[in-house]
Design brief:
The protein has helices spanning 38-53, 72-89, 98-104, 146-151, 181-190, 192-195; strands at 5-10, 15-22, 25-33, 62-66, 93-96, 113-117, 122-131, 134-137, 142-145, 159-161, 174-176, 196-197. It is α/β, with parallel strands linked by helices and 217 residues long. The chain has a six-stranded mixed beta sheet with strand order 3-2-1-4-5-12, sandwiched between helices. Strands 6, 7, 8, 9, 10 and 11 form a six-stranded mixed beta sheet that branches. The protein starts with a strand and ends in a 20-residue tail after the last strand.
């Protein structure tokens, strides 16, 4: 694996974060749970991590950004910044799936299911398999009412969640996870060739269409 220098961004949730990654090392990280201020704070965080890393903008090789699913506004802000930065510096973008990056942050557990909140009692969920200590999507991210997911849940699976505590029965064991620019950047580094998008002008966040249950008419 080449030691690419990567600016990583994570804005899919109430957390706003930026990191500088080199190979398998996180050189600098700045993140904070700061709802509805991503557009204001993200440029400052990027400036901070570049300075703290001891690197320069001209040495950055790519921008990794969490593309969702998650907050519509947060994802739009993160990808918009990533596109502007990448265009200005002539860099490619690494489009990193948000839940997969969270799974990578829990690599020692090798979880096979991850949950993050959508809205109301709906959650985003995704299944994973593992190979060479890396998560691979075993299904596309989907949004569903928590009750429907619980009906088909494999309770023996290794599962993680972010801010879904209120929806999960106390008899189920979920590992707590947190979205982070660190994991976006490190997974982007590990899967550089797979995730790289050389011309990302039309790249859109993975918003995920709502899952509907009902009887057709």
């Amino acid at each position: 694996m080449a030691d690419h220098l990567i600016l990583a961004l994570e804005t899919s949730s109430s957390i706003c974060g930026a990191a500088i990654i080199k190979g398998r090392d996180c050189l600098a990280l700045k993140e904070e749970e700061i709802p509805r201020k991503h557009a204001e704070i993200l440029p400052l965080f990027v400036e901070s991590v570049i300075y703290e890393s001891g690197e320069e903008i001209k040495t950055i090789n790519a921008v990794a950004v969490g593309i969702g699913p998650g907050s519509f506004t947060g994802l739009r802000i993160g990808l918009g910044f990533a596109k502007g930065f990448a265009f200005a510096q002539g860099l490619p973008i690494l489009a990193v799936p948000t839940i997969e990056a969270m799974a990578f942050g829990l690599a020692k557990h090798q979880p096979t299911l991850g949950l993050v909140p959508s809205h109301g009692r709906r959650i985003f969920f995704q299944h994973f398999s593992w190979k060479d200590k890396l998560p691979n999507s075993a299904s596309k991210p989907t949004v569903i009412d928590m009750e429907y997911l619980l009906n088909d849940l494999d309770k023996k699976a290794t599962m993680f969640q972010w801010k879904c505590d209120d929806f999960i029965p106390k008899n189920l064991d979920f590992i707590a996870a947190v979205p982070s620019a660190r994991w976006v950047g490190l997974l982007g580094s590990e899967k550089y060739d797979q995730l790289i998008i050389d011309k990302p002008y039309d790249l859109e966040p993975d918003y995920i269409a709502p899952f509907k249950v009902g009887i057709g008419k």
